[in-house]
């Protein structure tokens, strides 16, 4: 017969892991090629080459990747973690800012970034804020992740001028996949009509 005290201890550990995932979860967008083997990843349909990954503070001193082992201890799935991320309130309200204002240059066409009021940026915030962005712009959005920490987004327009702008953005911000903080060199689109992401190039 199994030692009852061992069973209770195991249950307590699992409860602790579950609580940490619910209250101390950190969510990131990470290039698939940079994700450690046993790390939980959740793919977002249409966003090729990148996935949601998660970190968690099991103690106040240390954050670590959420692995399949931790996930099974909590009895959760990757989709459960995505739901926790999407439902959690933001530490600071998010706002849309013009990229030109940030870099101090005039631009012929509006390019935007997303940040909180403390000017903190996170690429993954774009995923969570998409309902707000849909409401604000009322049209599809081009998305280009310039790093793990920030993304540019541009209201959709089917024109030669727009294609030249997109070519310029890609040329300016294409990055070495081996560089620290690299996320993707793909150009994505959030299609407001179909309600989904697409990888354009």
What is this structure's SSE topology?
Layout: H1 4-23, E1 25-31, E2 41-43, E3 50-59, E4 62-65, H2 68-74, H3 78-87, E5 94-98, H4 99-103, E6 112-116, H5 125-137, E7 141-147, E8 150-155, H6 160-173, E9 188-191, E10 196-199
Helix pairs in contact: 1-2
What does this structure look like?
With 201 residues, the chain is of the alpha+beta class. It folds into two domains: 4-87, no CATH class; 94-199, no CATH class. 34% of the residues lie in helices and 27% in strands. The protein contains six helices and ten strands; from the N terminus they run αββββααβαβαββαββ. It has helices at 4-23, 68-74, 78-87, 99-103, 125-137, 160-173; strands at 25-31, 41-43, 50-59, 62-65, 94-98, 112-116, 141-147, 150-155, 188-191, 196-199. Strands 1, 2, 3 and 4 form a four-stranded antiparallel sheet that branches. Strand 3 and strand 4 form a beta hairpin. Helix 1 crosses helix 2. The longest helix is centred in the first third of the chain and has 20 residues, at 4-23.
H and E string: HEEEEHHEHEHEEHEE
Proportion of strand residues: 25-35%
Helical amount = 25-40%
Task: Let me know the average pLDDT.
Answer: 85
Kindly give the count of domains: 2
User: What does the largest sheet look like?
Assistant: 4 strands, antiparallel
The first-to-last residue Cα distance is: 59 Å
Shape: elongated
Tell me the radius of gyration.
Answer: 19 Å
- Low confidence ranges: 1-11
- Helix/strand structural class: alpha+beta
Counting H and I runs of at least 4 residues, what is the number of helices? 6
Got a strand count?
10
């Amino acid at each position: 017969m199994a030692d009852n005290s061992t069973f209770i201890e195991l249950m307590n550990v699992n409860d602790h892991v579950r609580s940490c995932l619910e209250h101390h979860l950190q969510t990131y967008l990470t290039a698939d090629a940079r994700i450690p083997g046993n790390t939980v990843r959740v793919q977002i349909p249409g966003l090729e080459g990148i996935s949601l990954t998660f970190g968690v503070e099991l103690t106040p001193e240390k954050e670590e990747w959420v692995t399949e082992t931790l996930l099974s201890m909590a009895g959760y799935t990757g989709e459960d973690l995505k739901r926790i991320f999407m439902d959690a309130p933001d530490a600071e309200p998010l706002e849309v800012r013009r990229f030109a204002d940030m870099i101090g240059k005039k631009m012929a066409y509006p390019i935007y970034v997303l940040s909180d009021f403390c000017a903190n940026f996170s690429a993954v915030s774009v995923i969570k804020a998409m309902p707000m962005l849909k409401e604000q712009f009322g049209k599809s959005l081009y998305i280009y992740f310039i790093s793990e920490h920030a993304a540019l987004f541009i209201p959709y327009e089917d024109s030669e001028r727009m294609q030249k702008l997109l070519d310029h953005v890609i040329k300016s911000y294409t990055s070495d996949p081996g560089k620290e903080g690299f996320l993707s060199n793909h150009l994505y689109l959030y299609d407001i009509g179909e309600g989904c992401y697409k990888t354009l190039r």
